[in-house]
């Protein structure tokens, strides 16, 4: 059987998520929505989490397969994070996609703004992971995927708080991977550059101005979703503790 057969048994075995339970936060739109749909298409049962119940329901209704669930709540609130961990049940994968951009030049950064960015981008995924581990919700062979950013690895004007929150994820990732490796649980991070989402598309002029900077093109939510699928699947069974750059070639021009 050729690897090009669609679908080949080998590819389905490597990249399929049949019978796997996967939690995706920030799943009501953009990258999180694409991740949820891609995972469901690969056979997983999804828990889609986010703030907007109506949007989550629309995503849930569009997912192929059965047995999917939604969780609506604000993950910047500690009690909500604990409630989500309690309601998940056994999991085989987690994708921490919830986040905010938090753009501001440093001279205008306020402490409440900084707290908000850190609460959503760093504290929420870190504490959700902590509660899932404390409950032993992650089965052996599970995979945790954090959505970091290329901003955590390179300097960009006006994204100090956002870059700091995403860099904090990478700083936490590597000790976490060491803690979990003996339990056969993997943890990795994706670091996309600019991704064309409803949020980034609001300013068309800015988007087009930045498009020329990326020789391989601006990323799409589906690009990130496919990378998440790799890290959730058996294809990456020997990969942990890695921060994977998806920069569209911008670092090389």
Automatic annotation (TrEMBL):
Keywords: Oxidoreductase. Residues 20-201 form the Ketoreductase domain. Its EC number is 1.-.-.-. It is an enzyme of class 1 (oxidoreductase). One of its GO terms (molecular function) is oxidoreductase activity. The keyword Oxidoreductase applies. The keyword Oxidoreductase applies. InterPro entries: KR_dom, NAD(P)-bd_dom_sf, SDR_DHRS6-like, SDR_fam. SUPFAM superfamilies: NAD(P)-binding Rossmann-fold domains. Belongs to the short-chain dehydrogenases/reductases (SDR) family. This is SDR family oxidoreductase. It comes from Xanthomonas indica.
